[in-house]
Amino acid sequence: MSLERLDAPAAASVWNRPSFRRTRSDSLMHRLPALDHLGAMRESVALGMPLIYLGLSAVLVALALLGRRLKLQRR
């Protein structure tokens, strides 16, 4: 099947269809407040999960920058 033979709506439906893995992880994320990094659930905000994820992200970025700096110094 070539792309010339596909009409636009059919081609768009192929690209817009969510993957099975993503829908499973999204449904799991909506049930567990500990996995809600956006704070969409009241329980996750009460647990402070968005702030924990923000802090964890900052630590990981700092470690990546430090590792890159050390790697460049060894050259």
Structure description:
The protein has 75 residues and is mostly helical. Helix content is 67%, strand content 0%. It has one domain. The protein is built from four helices and no strands. It is elongated. The protein starts with 7 loop residues before the first helix and ends with a helix.
Concise synopsis of the structure shown:
This protein is an all-alpha fold. It has helices at 8-16, 20-29, 42-47, 49-73.
Shape: elongated
State the total count of DSSP E strands. 0
Structural class: mainly alpha
User: Number of folding domains?
Assistant: 1
Average per-residue pLDDT, rounded, comes to: 77
In percent, how much strand structure appears in the residues?
A: under 5%
Instruction: State the major sheet.
Output: none
User: In which range does the helix fraction lie?
Assistant: 55-70%
Q: Count of helices?
A: 4
- Succession of helices and strands: HHHH
Q: Any low-confidence stretches, pLDDT <50, length ≥5?
A: none
Distance between the termini: 51 Å
Radius of gyration: 21 Å
Annotation keywords:
0% strand, 67% helix, 4 helices, 75 residues, mainly alpha, elongated
List the helices and strands and how they pair.
Blueprint: H1 8-16, H2 20-29, H3 42-47, H4 49-73
